[in-house]
Every structure is written in structure tokens, then in C-alpha cells.
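Hello K.,

You asked for the raw outputs rather than the summary table, so here they are, unedited. I folded two proteins back to back in the same session to keep the settings identical. This is the first:
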Amino acid sequence: MPLHARHVARALAPAALVLAGIGALAGPGPDGAPQGAPRVLTLEMNGPITGGTSEYVLAGLAKAKADGLDAVAITLDTPGGMLDATREIVRALLGSEVPVVVWVGPTAAQAASAGTFITLAAGVAAMHPTSNIGAAHPVTGSGKDVAAEAGKDMAKKVENDTVAFIRSVAAARGRNAAWAEKAVRESVSVVADEAVKLGIVDFVAKDLREALALADGKKVKTGAGERVFRGKGAVLLPLEPTVRQQLLMLIANPNVVAILMLLGTLGIAIEFYHPGGIVPGALGAFFLFVAFLGMRVIPVNVGAVLLVLAGVGLLVAEAYVTAHGLAGLGGAVCIVLGTLFFIDRSSPDYHFDPGALALSPWIVWPTPIALAALMGFMAWKVAGSRRVPLQLGAPALVGEEGQALGDVGPDGGEAFVHGEYWKARSSLPIPKGARLRVTAVEGLTVIVVAVDEKG
């Protein structure tokens, strides 16, 4: 290389390094987003709010803080849930050092009952245009007030406590506390546009990215003080729930709990019908254990559970008593009724949207009827097997035919019957090699007659 060319190259080298550094800062990162773009951890809360949901949210907030992320974004669609889990989530959102965005979506999503508390507790709250929020008043499964089942004093106590809770959450975030109180006392619910006008949420956004972009530059209160939110062009980092959290969320579905309950009772019943099978009984016990865990997650009517168990007991009894089908019919009726009244939303520990948490008709009717039919068939087979003569031991020899191994008479002899050698005795002589039939068994001696004679 000529001398003057080397001088030019040396002179341009610093400029090239500067340009390369600028390009690295402005260019795309390994995930395709510009370097320096805000990083947002995304969580999805679909279905009832349970202990698994609470663990999931708290783990997400802890991860966002540990990894130094810019924000946490929660996509919310829930009919409500456990009050204890809701309080844990709200407490975590209010105290989070990382800004939190809650977007009620996607299409036709709801932030009902417990979901209302969570949305109000967010640093930034947004809703899909077709979503709704509210209906935070505790109700029974039939839509009646708690007073109808728990009494006026208890209803008033629960209502006042819930009102104080929701007002404090709304006030902490500068949201409409008066409307929040009406959501509890009057069970009011509003759509997205109305929620923005009432000061319940901040924006209407068609998706999570739009919500983050609209929130960009907004000052948000966090547990570490006020921070300017950065969300425009963010890198989204989804967080999947753990197996334990997924299990707790799964068994929060009343349809899953009902099926587990029926499968568990079926397994136990099969073990009664065929003792020693072990596998059906073990599986039944496991399903019942998981179902009982689910009953701690969702409000289950104890009386309905007892009805289901009583129904299974009657179906089992059908195989052991002469009830001419009445026990089986009664068992089927008990199972259907127990399934119909399986969910109990009168408990003050739960906040669910009326009608949102219900068993599917495909669970209420076909499943118990199919279970009753299966167990009825098993009962019929067991009853039929009791009418069949025993095929084992000495009684099984009666009526069997064999062959005389020698002369058989009143003084005895030997015979080959049922694959075995037996001492034999006959009132009339039977010659060697003749066919004979067993008419009785006395100890280790068979009483036989010639096959052409009447026994």
C-alpha cells in the first residue's frame, strides 16, 4: 500500500469506530428490536383469580425487578376470583418498584369483580374497545344478595369491608373512588369508552402494544417513587407460568373439578366391585385428592359434594342389595343434583361475576348419566356373576365328567376328573376306562356315576 494511502486510512480509523458505535446503538438487537428499546415482561391472566394466579403475578414482578426490566404488562380477562389472592396481587401491584400496565383484553374481555380491583391497582390501566369492567358485588349462584343466604349482618359487614378495600385502591392510583364504591354496592359495570370518561382507566387500546405506546412518557407511582413510563417500541418478554401455577389455575375451572370428582368416585367404585385391582382405586384416590384441592380454589357447595358421594354409594350398593334398580336410579339422581348445585358463590371469600362461573351443560347432564350407566352395567355384571356356579375348588367338580382309571365301586377306585387324579366311589360298579360324572365331593373323594346313569 502506498505511503499516502496508509496515512489516509489511519486518519479515518477513529471516525469509523465512532460510526460503528453509533450503528450498534441504533441498530437492531438480537431480537430484532433497536438497542436501548424498553424491555417489558408480559403476563396473561385468563380465568378465575386463584392462588396460582397470585404466585404467577408475584413471580413476574420479582423477575422484572431482578432483571432490571422497564415494566410489567398484564393482559387481563377474568370473571373474578378468590379475595385472598386478589388482595395479594393488589398489594404487590401497589408496592411494585417496576411500573405495571394492565390491559383488559382481548376482544370481549372482562375485568369483573376481583378483576376490577386488579385493574384499579395498576400504574397504567387500559381496555380493549369491546371489554367491560365492574360488577364487584358478591352474589349467590342464583344472583341473589349475600343477605339472602348469610344474613343481613354478614352481608353488610362483607360489603362495607369490600367498599373500603376498593376505595383505598382507587384513591392510591388517583382513580374514581365513587364509581369504585358503586361497583361494589350496586354491581355497576361499564364499557371501555365510559370507563375512560369516568376516570376508571387511562386509555382505550386495541392491543397491548398500543396500550404501551399510549402510556409512553406517563409519570407512574411505584414502590420506589415516581417514574416516567417507557413503553413505545418495547421488546415484549412473555413469562410462562410454572407447572404448579398452571395446575392451580386448571383446577380453578369448576368443570375440571366436577370431572375429577366423578372420575375419582368411579375409580373407588370400581375398586369396590373388583377388590384387589389397586390401579382403579389408586387413580380414584388421586383424582379425588386433586378435586379437593380445586375445592379450596373455587367456591364449592359442600352439600352438593355430599350428594355426589351419596349417589356413588347408592350405585355401588345396587350391586350388593336387591333393590330392583331403585338404588341405581336414586344414585343417578343424587349425582345430577349434586352437579347442578356444585358451585356456591355465596361465600364472602370470593368475588365472581354473576353467571360467569358455572358448570357447562355438557358436564351437568351427560357426564353423570354416563357414569350412572357405566356403574349400573358393572352392577348388573357383578350380580350376574353371583348366579354362576363356582368354578374353583371342590364345588366346581360337581357335574364334571371324567374317566375311570380302574374299576370303581362301593369300595372305591380312582378317577381322572378336571385334569386331576381323585379317589372315587360309586354305588354301582363302573369298569376301567368308562366315562363317569361327579355328583358330590366328600373330602378328597368324589362320588361318581356312569355317564349313562342318572345322577
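The second followed immediately with the same parameters:
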Amino acid sequence: MILEDSDAALMTRAGDNRNKVSALLNLSDGMLGDFLRLQIFCTINCSIAEIDPALLRPGRIIEHRIFERMSHLQARSLAEKLGVTLPGIADYSLAEVFAGQSAETNTRPSIGFGA
């Protein structure tokens, strides 16, 4: 199971996300998780220090990876393998490389109402 931008579901339990964290713990530790051999991949944009301590206990979190921005050379190498042309010389995030653009040159139309 992949949960993208799952910050709210993983952050320290408070009134608004208590059920989300409990549901993840039940899925991952319960009989259903064992039976289905369920693995949950989560992407977050918050600090690991903000994650609920129950989720970080040994045996629950298998791997934690941080993807920093890539230098232009690293990004260009990945882009070439993907068949993407990168505009400009800058550092790039993985999302920018896969989208084929940098934050500086993003010409994608915005969503919503505009003038």
C-alpha cells in the first residue's frame, strides 16, 4: 500500500488524526497485516521527529530514506536515462526531474481560478 503525502496520518497523535494513526497501527500490526503480508510505503514532507513514536518503534519502520535535491549533474544523468530534457542549470528534486522541469522554470498552468 502506498500513502503519498501522509504527514497527517503519521504525525504525533492529536485530536484530529488519532483515528488515522490507530488505523495504520492496526493494519500494520494486526492479523490482517500478517495475513496479507501488508507493507505500507509512506511519503512525507515533515521531519521524522514529528512522526508518532508508536510508528517508529523497532519492527514497525523498516527503512527511512531522505531524498535531497540533486545537483545539476546528477539530475541530468537521471533525466537522460528517463529520456527527459531539463530546462536550465539548477539543482532538481526527483519530482522536477520526472516532470521535466525545475521550480524556477515551471510553466505548468495553475489549477483554479485566475485573472
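The chain has two domains: 2-56, 68-115.

Happy to rerun anything if the numbers look odd on your end.

Regards,
P.
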